[in-house]
Specification:
This protein has helices at about 1-5, 15-30; strands at about 30-35, 45, 50-55, 65-70, 75-80, 85, 95, 105, 115-120, 125-135, 140-145, 150-155, 160-165, 170-175, 180, 185-190, 195-200, 205-215, 220-225, 230-240, 250-260, 260-265, 270, 280, 290-295. By secondary structure, it is mainly beta. Strands 1, 2, 4, 5, 6, 9 and 10 form a seven-stranded mixed β-sheet that branches. A hairpin with a 3-residue loop joins strand 9 and strand 10 (about 125-135). It is rod-shaped.
């Protein structure tokens, strides 16, 4: 009776909590304790910055007089005759449904992980308790890689690849084609390791770059494909030098190039209008003797 009267005074937060403890002390002397009667799921999970709801699976069959949520030895919130009071340290992050006794926690922090206890006293002076565990995971998400949009030319261009992501980042790892990417004279990492610059680019820099953000709870990887343009170079023609009359002959032209080269064929310095990598003569005669040239370009 005295404790309830003190709890309804809202002029002082300290007085509210003092009177709450006094009420619970009085009830522990005169109430009937029935042990771990409130059931919860074994484990609740939440991510840093997000929210979670902790709620008992069962409620007392009689009306609730007092319900309090606590974390370790810290009182989080108390509901007395339907009126909810929240510890100032949790204000703005915590709410309690006075009907279901569900505790909602917002903007979770890593140190919110632990055991939460709910204690309920009914109007029949019966005390019921239960507890559940919360694991707050520092989740990493939205990891992306941003690279150059313009074409890159071997020996002339430079490339900058930047990583972005959300969450608590403890480590950053770079790979290229599934092998560790190491710094060199041309490969330079930023001090926070979140971007890499390549200058000047070489054809060997082409490939798939992977960046992984990690912390003890999670990791996420983003990829970016880098293409270095070069060539054409090392143009060559393959085919027979001497052939019989009346046979089919094919000459093939190749070149090292990125992107793939286009080709143009001439016969005795006259354009043949053939623009593929293969020049074919269906049936040879004496007029086909001469010089065949292949020109490759991008």
């Amino acid at each position: 009776m005295f404790g309830l009267q003190l709890l309804t005074v809202e002029s002082s937060i300290m007085m509210v909590y003092y009177s709450l403890y006094w009420t619970l002390w009085m009830l522990s002397c005169f109430g009937q304790y029935s042990g771990q009667d409130l059931q919860f799921p074994e484990l609740a999970n939440g991510a840093v910055g997000e929210s979670v709801v902790l709620a008992p699976d069962n409620l007392p069959s009689t009306s609730i007089f007092i319900a309090q949520w606590s974390f370790t030895s810290t009182l989080i919130s108390a509901v007395v005759s339907g009126v909810t009071t929240v510890n100032p340290a949790y204000r703005g992050r915590v709410s309690v449904d006075s009907n279901t006794l569900a505790l909602t926690m917002q903007n979770l922090r890593k140190n919110d992980s632990g055991i939460y206890k709910l204690s309920v006293t009914t109007t029949a002076m019966e005390i019921l308790t239960g507890e559940t565990s919360l694991q707050v995971i520092a989740k990493i998400y939205n990891v992306t890689l941003i690279g150059p949009e313009e074409p890159l030319i071997e020996g002339d261009s430079f490339a900058n690849i930047t990583s972005e992501g959300t969450g608590i980042i403890n480590s950053v790892e770079w790979m290229k084609d599934n092998s560790p990417l190491s710094p060199s004279n041309s490969i330079i990492f930023s001090p926070d390791y979140r971007s890499v610059s390549i200058s000047p680019v070489q054809r060997s820099d082409s490939g798939e770059y992977q960046c992984t953000y990690s912390n003890p709870d999670s990791s996420e990887t983003a990829t970016y494909s880098l293409i270095i343009n070069y060539g054409p170079e090392d143009v060559s023609i393959k085919g027979p030098d001497v052939v019989d009359l009346g046979v089919r002959v094919s000459l093939s032209c190749s070149a090292n190039s990125e992107p793939s080269a286009s080709f143009r064929w001439t016969f005795n310095e006259t354009d043949t209008n053939v623009t593929t990598d293969t020049f074919t003569i269906d049936e040879t005669d004496f007029t086909h003797s001469g010089d065949y040239d292949c020109t490759a370009w991008e």
